[in-house]
């Protein structure tokens, strides 16, 4: 159950998953190796059918579409194998990100995730040890909506328990950042941990209070 929180006092920090918490490229490289096809050949169908998968399509429907585009017939064993590889590639966060999250969580700053992701990946993230630092995890497959749909940000507000003005958000896609800003979030394009630390300092969060302007508790 998501915990309620006063939105007038505390600022939450919300992150995208792929390309932010988790480096891009690992899943495609591993999948191309497993299938024995060039990565650029796999990339086209992998991304072409991804929106439906991220919205909640079953793994079999997605991987069989990808396989058909490659001229491959994928049975249930192949579907399960590819899905395991894909999930593993999108659920390993970087060491510098781990350090950032640990520091923020230790300071009492509420953390969240808002990401386009299929249900199998969402389940794996929720089971992972590193996800325990997050107060709320919201995935497109949970709500049947993809960023940058404005409704996705409203759904995240409901689960976080914060007003839009009290959410700082990082995403690697400028379109998602623009939509989040239009919703009222203090959104920023992710450029890496160093840039994120600078953003958090400007947002008044470097001292770890989580309060706008870095005001002390009391």
What does this structure look like?
α7 links the parallel β2 and β3 (136-139). α1 (26-35) crosses α2 (39-48). The chain has 218 residues and is an alpha/beta fold. The two termini are 27 Å apart. It has helices at residues 26-35, 39-48, 50-55, 59-69, 76-89, 95-106, 119-127, 140-143, 150-160, 174-183, 193-202, and strands at 12-15, 111-115, 136-139, 167-171, 186-189. Strands 3-2-1-4-5 form a five-stranded parallel β-sheet, sandwiched between helices. The chain is elongated.
Summarize the structure.
The protein is an alpha/beta fold. It is 49% helix and 10% strand.
Keywords:
11 helices, 49% helix, 218 residues, disordered C terminus, alpha/beta, 5 strands, five-stranded parallel beta sheet
Topology:
Elements: E1 12-15, H1 26-35, H2 39-48, H3 50-55, H4 59-69, H5 76-89, H6 95-106, E2 111-115, H7 119-127, E3 136-139, H8 140-143, H9 150-160, E4 167-171, H10 174-183, E5 186-189, H11 193-202
Parallel strand pairs: 1-2, 1-4, 2-3, 4-5
